[in-house]
Amino acid sequence: MTQIISNLNVTKLVVDHPIGQDNPPLLSPDSHNDDQDAPTQQVLQLSDFAVDWEDRLTDKQLDTFVTDGWLTIDNVFNKTALLALQAESGFIDYRDAALTAGIRISDIRGDRIRWITKNFFAGFYYLQSINALAALFNQSLFAGIRHSEAHYACYPAGFGYQWHSDNPAGRDERVISAVFYLNDEWTASDGGALEIIDKHGSHHSVMPVANRLVIFDSDLQHQVQIAHRQRYSIATWMRRDGLVPFVEDSM
I need a labelling partner for 222 at 20 to 30 A (CA). Which of 53, 180, 181, 205 fits? Predict the structure, then answer.
């Protein structure tokens, strides 16, 4: 069994120098699979993933995010970028995910994952777009985000992820979480909805519709309902601590 570990250790907070025009975002290092290029590598460009976040996020939406702790953006990327992410998610050698303590408990968490590094060409471009969004949050909300990380996630039919927050007890490195969805023609009967408890204690259920990005405060409680068909997404975190290299530990 292969266990994927990333940023599970507490690292020094460096909120005094967040992502911005004068400070390009830190990027995850290459993994050791340099000879395995994504199938879309030769046809993609960074511009395919460009999003005008200032245009997509109005002042009213930002106010709602601050007040409620979450928001949804639909039709995020163009068709080229979405198809590339969908294709790449289907070619990945997924690994068993682990809880923060490094233990996999399928009754709590049933997804299989693969952390995004430069080897995942579409995913790497996705992260650059997320970093641009982080820069907007830093500019508008003084979020203090230093870098972003993400992994592809696959939930087999019959699995979900029980209630949790993305910052374990006593931790606050993760500032903003985001989930990007990849499944076409997802219906309510397919299950797999994201449930969120907002800052007022109200309950919300969000369908995992393709090209939808859900953004929320990393301290909010949320869960993934049991999926009734294979469910693909990209789990994302904008963080305010120092970058920790990715580790793939074969067991």
Answer: 53
